[in-house]
Amino acid sequence: MCVGQNFDQRHLGDYALAAKLLEKQGISYSLAQLEHLRSNRLEALSQPQDLPAIWLVIGYLSPLILFAPVPFTFALSFLGIFMGAFIRLTKKTLPDGSRIAAFSIKTRNHGKWMLISGIPLIIICWTLLVRIWRG
Question: Which of 26, 48, 71, 123 is deepest in the core (most CB within 10 A)?
Answer without folding.
Answer: 48
